[in-house]
Amino acid sequence: MEQAELTTEQVGERDIPWETYMMTKLISGTDLQLLRRYDNRPESYRAQLLDDDGPAYVRVFVTILRDIFKEETVEYVLALIDEMLTANPKRARLFHDKSLANDDPYEPFLS
C-alpha cells in the first residue's frame, strides 16, 4: 500500500515516540503530559479534554507541526487535528485563542 492510500484511522494507529521527542527537547514535559493524556483515548474522552483545555492541546499540535519533521509524526498530528475538527467544526476557534497570539497557528500548515 502506498503512503497516499493511508486512511486517518490507519495513521491514528501509529505509536509515536513522544518520550524520545521530549528527551531531545523537541517537546516539553508539559507537552508530553498533554499528549499522554490525549493519545490513544476514545473520542468522548478527547472531547472532554478539548472542552476543558482545548487551547493547550492546539498549542501542542502546532508546536509539533512546527518543530518536528518526521513524516509519520506529522501525519499523525494532522490526523488528530482532522478528527478533532471533524467531530466538532466549532473547535476551529481554538486556533484563534489568545494564548496562541505570539505564534501563527497556521504557519505549520503552509510548509
From TrEMBL:
GO terms for cellular component: vacuolar proton-transporting V-type ATPase, V1 domain. Pfam families: V-ATPase_H_N. GO terms for molecular function: proton-transporting ATPase activity, rotational mechanism. Transmembrane segments: none annotated. This is V-type proton ATPase subunit H. The lineage of its organism: Eukaryota, Viridiplantae, Streptophyta, Embryophyta, Tracheophyta.
